[in-house]
């Protein structure tokens, strides 16, 4: 559960990539990939936010921008009130030094092996960052600290694991080493980007339980990213956290996990819920609740609401103008970018697009 203290604040965040088109002239054919567009999100101390969305919806780019690994092209990312990128320049005089911000925001990836030096033992890999950040620690204390954390993530006896090389570890063990490396920095927030996706199904829950246990014990916030709603839900619900849904670069719904899943407001959240068997496809429609299966290209996203090309409830209004994010509960924690959440919006009198209906459909809610 989060406190009122804001650790990380994304404000109208935008990350666009310029890339060359497929034509003969690389300059005239440049294209803009709108990977993240207008995302605002505050993450508090001890807060857990799980972001879910289809491949290419911008989750990784959002996560990297949140921890300072990707420079935004618009909007801002602040750590405890200090703009991360303004803290970076040598001429700046930040309230929090950039190095400290980077230490406080850690990341664990889908492929932890790529972040481990194959020629170094676990002990050596884990000692290096400690040496940098806590130079006052002597070699013995450093080793003791590393061993303590290795044991803490369930790798026992720790001496045995400490002297292994990455190729002598299983995928799950490598992921635990990556977790130790993050925790040794005493971070305020850990970005876990598809951190359990590559693990065997049987190990996923075990790893997520470990993340949850450590989150509480170390008072760390988590930004958990997954393309899989059941994983995102597991983390967010168990941590009493929030679930965010991304579609084509935009955060279309955000709220307490149980509330978003019990009463999804965005038609795209309903699609994700439909596609996750344990969340009740049995009671819902037999076909996915979309008019169009294909996901549009983020180089040229649809006008208005980006989901309008697939949405079963889209009208001319959705095609023309993008809806603002509005609150659907009294405390403003459940937010959605959809006209259907506003009773008196012009949407209700707008003409439905081909194959769409504005009728209220509650087959994917539990209410
Ligand atoms: N460095 C880059 N240069 C150009 N385009 C990029 C770059 N990084 C990401 N993209 C594009 O930005 C969009 C969002 O990518 P991103 O990896 O953030 O999505 P994602 O939701 O994490 O998807 P996945 O789960 O497949 O990684 C995609 O269209 C991707 O091709």
- The fraction of residues in strands falls at 15-25%
Largest sheet: 8 strands, mixed
What is the rounded Rg?
A: 22 Å
State the total count of DSSP E strands: 12
Q: Give the ordered list of helices and strands.
A: EEEHEEHEHHHHEHEHEEHHHEE
Strand order of the largest sheet: 6-7-8-3-9-10-12-11
| Helix/strand/pairing category | alpha/beta
Separation, N- and C-terminal Cα atoms: 25 Å
Instruction: State the helical fraction.
Output: 25-40%
Overall shape: it is: globular
Low-confidence stretches: none
Number of helices: 11
* Small ligands present: adenosine-5'-triphosphate
Mean pLDDT: 90
Verbal overview:
The chain has 367 residues and is α/β, with parallel strands linked by helices. It has a domain at 278-367. Helix content is 29%, strand content 20%. The chain contains eleven helices and twelve strands. The protein has helices spanning 59-66, 98-104, 122-133, 139-152, 158-162, 171-184, 201-217, 229-238, 257-262, 267-274, 316-320, and strands spanning 6-20, 30-44, 48-52, 74-79, 82-83, 105-108, 189-193, 221-226, 242-247, 250-256, 326-327, 335-336. An eight-stranded mixed sheet has the order 6-7-8-3-9-10-12-11, with helices on both faces. β4 and β5 form a beta hairpin. α3 (122-133) packs parallel to α6 and α7 (201-217) packs parallel to α8 (229-238). The longest helix is centred in the middle third of the chain and has 17 residues, at 201-217. It is globular and about 70 Å long. The model has no long low-confidence stretch (mean pLDDT 90).
């Amino acid at each position: 559960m989060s406190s009122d203290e804001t650790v990380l604040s994304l404000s109208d965040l935008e990350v666009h990539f310029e890339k060359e088109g497929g034509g003969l002239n690389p300059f005239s054919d440049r294209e803009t990939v709108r990977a993240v567009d207008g995302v605002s999100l505050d993450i508090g101390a001890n807060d857990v936010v799980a972001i879910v969305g289809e491949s290419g919806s911008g989750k990784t780019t959002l996560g990297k921008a949140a921890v300072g690994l990707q420079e935004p092209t618009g909007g801002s990312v602040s750590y405890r009130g200090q703009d991360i990128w303004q803290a970076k320049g040598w001429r700046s005089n930040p309230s929090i030094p950039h190095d400290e911000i980077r230490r406080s925001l850690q990341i664990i990836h889908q492929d932890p092996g790529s972040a481990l030096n194959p020629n170094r033992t676990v002990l050596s890999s884990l000692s290096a960052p400690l040496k940098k950040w806590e130079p006052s620690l002597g070699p013995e204390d450093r080793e003791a600290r590393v061993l303590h954390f290795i044991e803490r993530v369930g790798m026992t006896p720790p001496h045995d694991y400490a002297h292994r090389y990455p190729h002598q570890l299983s995928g799950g063990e490598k992921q635990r080493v990556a977790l130790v490396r993050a925790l040794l920095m005493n971070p305020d927030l850990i970005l876990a980007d598809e951190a359990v996706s590559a693990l065997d199904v049987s190990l996923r829950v075990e790893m997520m339980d470990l993340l949850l246990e450590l989150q509480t014990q170390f008072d760390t916030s988590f930004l958990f990213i997954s393309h899989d709603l059941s994983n995102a839900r597991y983390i967010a619900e168990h941590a009493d956290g929030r679930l965010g849904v991304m579609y084509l670069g935009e955060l279309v719904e955000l709220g307490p996990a149980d509330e978003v899943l019990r009463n999804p407001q965005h038609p795209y959240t309903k699609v994700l819920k439909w596609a996750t068997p344990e969340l009740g496809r049995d009671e819902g429609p037999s076909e996915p609740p979309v008019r169009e299966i294909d996901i549009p290209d983020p180089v040229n996203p649809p006008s208005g609401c980006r989901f309008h090309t697939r949405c079963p409830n889209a009208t001319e209004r959705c095609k023309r103008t993008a809806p603002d994010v509005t609150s659907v509960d009294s405390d403003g924690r459940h937010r959605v970018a959809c006209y259907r959440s506003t009773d008196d919006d012009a949407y209700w009198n707008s003409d439905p697009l081909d194959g769409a209906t504005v009728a209220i459909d509650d087959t994917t809610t539990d209410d």
